[in-house]
Amino acid sequence: MNIGQAAKFSGVSAKMIRYYEQIGLIPKALRSDAGYRHYSQPDVHSLCFIRRARDLGFSVEQSGVLLALWHDRDRASADVKMMALSHVARLKAKIDELQAMAQTLEHLADHCRGNDRPNCPILADLAESIAAAEQPPLTSRRTPRFGVDTRASSRSSSR
């Protein structure tokens, strides 16, 4: 099948298929006499495998490792499990980070009056990082934070 058909069946765009070939994630496709790429059923299965790995958040490099493990019938499933659990740990850490960001923004939004006045704790908080960057480093300098321990709460109580 041609690249368009392979893209349709695998759910991987033609552009990404060409990229995966270029970086060696998948072998270069056979070419017709006219120079068109030709993909076999196993090629499409590999593309489906890569798409699923990418959908689960694995990097291109990790997808390549998983693909190699999938093709290696002598592999130990422990290797695959270790890789998956390591990825789960990274995903959970990212989830925690995103939740902290959301909490910070919700907290700041809760303290913003949202009226026609220019005072805005959201912008004030964002501007604090600019002011901190302009000052020489001190041991008491605030570190980036997530969560509700922002200075907006102290500003809102002084209004």
Automatic annotation (TrEMBL):
<dbReference type="InterPro" id="IPR015358">
    <property type="entry name" value="Tscrpt_reg_MerR_DNA-bd"/>
</dbReference>
<dbReference type="InterPro" id="IPR011789">
    <property type="entry name" value="CueR"/>
</dbReference>
<keyword id="KW-0963">Cytoplasm</keyword>
<keyword id="KW-0804">Transcription</keyword>
<protein>
    <submittedName>
        <fullName>Cu(I)-responsive transcriptional regulator</fullName>
    </submittedName>
</protein>
<keyword id="KW-0805">Transcription regulation</keyword>
<dbReference type="Pfam" id="PF00376">
    <property type="entry name" value="MerR"/>
</dbReference>
<keyword id="KW-0238">DNA-binding</keyword>
<dbReference type="Pfam" id="PF09278">
    <property type="entry name" value="MerR-DNA-bind"/>
</dbReference>
<feature type="region of interest" description="Disordered">
    <location>
        <begin position="133"/>
        <end position="159"/>
    </location>
</feature>
<dbReference type="GO" id="GO:0005737">
    <property type="term" value="C:cytoplasm"/>
</dbReference>
<dbReference type="GO" id="GO:0003677">
    <property type="term" value="F:DNA binding"/>
</dbReference>
<dbReference type="InterPro" id="IPR000551">
    <property type="entry name" value="MerR-type_HTH_dom"/>
</dbReference>
<dbReference type="GO" id="GO:0003700">
    <property type="term" value="F:DNA-binding transcription factor activity"/>
</dbReference>
<feature type="domain" description="HTH merR-type">
    <location>
        <begin position="1"/>
        <end position="69"/>
    </location>
</feature>
<dbReference type="GO" id="GO:0005507">
    <property type="term" value="F:copper ion binding"/>
</dbReference>
<dbReference type="InterPro" id="IPR009061">
    <property type="entry name" value="DNA-bd_dom_put_sf"/>
</dbReference>
<dbReference type="GO" id="GO:0045893">
    <property type="term" value="P:positive regulation of DNA-templated transcription"/>
</dbReference>
<dbReference type="InterPro" id="IPR047057">
    <property type="entry name" value="MerR_fam"/>
</dbReference>
